[in-house]
Design brief:
The protein has one domain (about 1-145). It is built from no helices and twelve strands. Helices cover about 0% and strands about 50% of the residues.
Length: about 180
Amino acid sequence: MTAAALVCHPTTPAPWLDGIVVRLTLDAHGDLTLVYTLSGDLARLRLPPPTRTDRSDGLWRHTCCEAFVMGADAPAYREFNFSPAGAWQAYDFAFYRRGGLLARTRPPRIVCQAAAHRLVLDVRLTPQHLPAGARLRLALCAVIEDREGRLSYWALNHPTAQADFHHPDAFTLELDRA
């Protein structure tokens, strides 16, 4: 298991949020499990109402956790959005911001548990969701919406003056497939 802390982009502060930690596991079957844990005064967090586990565009306009995954065929990568409400979306990019929906893929497993000071979003992606390659490079991030509708952007790395989760330098975490 690997754990990584996300940092808030300096232009989008959320002082009521203590932090976001992501625990990752890539198991022998090739399943990638991501467990996002948000902690702080979560009464200030705006969560979308629960929904079915449908694909939905625009999740990044509200609270959602994201994973960008690049395989051996870089610069190609995939983007996954996970809403605490259960909705999700997956995109396939040939290179920086050039792509579209990831076709014909099953829903990832998404389980969310919320309490007053902690929210845990547990996601499992199967090998069919992930790009090919013996090594995966990841950019992990989250969009956080407060009760007033302000967005805060969190990531492993913010390589530019504006939040840009797609930036090639944002892919800072590496995992080897078994």
